[in-house]
Amino acid sequence: MTDDKPRLISERELGMDRAIPRRDFLNGAAMAIGSAILPGGPRQAGVASGVEPQDRPGYNPPVATGLRGSHPGSFEIAHSLRDGMFWKTASTPQRLAEKFDLVVVGGGISGLAAAHFYREKAGSSAKILILENHDDFGGHARRNEFHLGGKLQLLNGGTMLMDSPTPYSAVAARLMEKLGVDPVALDKKCTDHGFYHALGLGPGVFFDRETFGADCLLKSPGSREGENTNANRDQDSSAASWRKFLQRAPLTDAARRDILRIETQDTDYMPGLFSAEKKDRLSRMSYKDFLLHVVKADAGAVAFYQTRTNGEWGVGIDAEPALDCWALGLPGFQGLKLDPGAAPHMSYSAAGYANGGSDRFHFPDGNASIARLLMRDLVPAAVPGNSVEDVVTANVDYARLDSPNYGVRIRLNSTVVRVRTVSNADGNWEQAGEVEVTYASGTEVFSVRAGACVLACWNMAIPYLCPELPEKQKQALHYLVKVPLVYTSVGLRNWTAFQKLGVSNVYCPGAFWNSVNLNWPVNIGDYRSPRSPEEPILVHLSRTPCKPGLPAREQHRAGRMELLATEFRTFERQIRDQLARMLAAGGFDPALDVEAITVNRWPHGYGYEYNPLFDPDWAEGQAPHIIGRQKFGRIAIANSDSGATAYTDVAIDQAHRAISELLSG
Ligand SMILES: Cc1cc2nc3c(=O)[nH]c(=O)nc-3n(C[C@H](O)[C@H](O)[C@H](O)COP(=O)(O)OP(=O)(O)OC[C@H]3O[C@@H](n4cnc5c(N)ncnc54)[C@H](O)[C@@H]3O)c2cc1C
Question: If you measure from the C-alpha of residue 664 to the centroid of ligand 1, how many angstroms do you get, rounded to a whole number?
Answer without folding.
Answer: 26
